[in-house]
Amino acid sequence: QVQLVESGGGVVQPGGSLRLSCAAFGFAFSNYGMHWVRQAPGKGLEWVASLYYDGSNEHYADSVKGRFTISRDNSKNTLYLQMNSLRAEDTAVYYCAREVTDQWLEHLDYWGQGTLVAVSS
Amino acid sequence: DIQMTQSPSSLAASVGDRITISCRASQSISDYLNWYQQKPGKSPRLLIYGASILQSGVSSRFSGSGSGTEFTLSISSVQPEDFATYYCQQTYSTPRITFGQGTRLEIK
Fold it and tell me: Measuring CA to CA, how many Å separate A102 from each of A29, B32, B107?
């Protein structure tokens, strides 16, 4: 069955870096666009970044543009999020999610369990 | 960016009640509107896409309606497992998608 498994979260000091990974199982990863969505403690969902199925067309939320980089390795069925210059406000659970399109209607049908990133000195 | 505003922010209901959650977009998004359910400590779950299309495996007591800027999520008879937070999401401006702030459904 479809499964997305995030890893790489942890505690990091302000200004530091982390790389998150999202391993995909049970579907043809190279056929799907992918997204990162985050949720700060006690807050709502915030879209972070997205990437087309073939690794082209990266898009970022203004809050992370220039600091975060989304990428993928289709040979390893893995999505990445490189996070640099981390700030306290980046503290959140980070989810990866698969995008599907049905009748030109995009939606995120599978989500990982999330990985916690805590930025603190 | 397109802003999504949900109302109410929280809602108390009893088992068996019919409830409705509203979502308003800052500009017309046609029917590019999805609804998700999230329980504490869990990842979001897709309920409805395209404003009214029920995702496979989701109970038929959930329904969605609307188009343009005004949308609603309804639960025909709230069950104990439905107490959760609900988010709307627009994909009109995909891949730059945005979520509403969430509506928490609580037990009365």
Answer: 17, 11, 34
CB atoms inside a 10 Å sphere around CB A83: 25
Contact A44 B100 (CB under 8 A): yes
The residues, ordered by sequence, that sit 6+ positions from B58 with a Cβ below 8 Å of its Cβ are: B46, B47, B48
% of residues, chain B, pLDDT over 90: 94
Single-letter code of the amino acid located at B62 = F
- The pLDDT of residue B1 is above 90: no
Contacting residues of B for A50, CB less than 8 Å apart: 94-97
For range A86-98, the mean pLDDT: 98
- How many whole angstroms separate alpha carbon A98 and alpha carbon A79? 10
Share of chain A above pLDDT 70, in %: 100
- Asked if A65 has any chain B CB less than 8 Å from its own CB, the reply is no
A contact test, residue of B2, B31, B33, B49 with most A CBs within 10 A? B49
Q: In whole angstroms, what is the distance from residue B18 CA to residue B21 CA?
A: 10
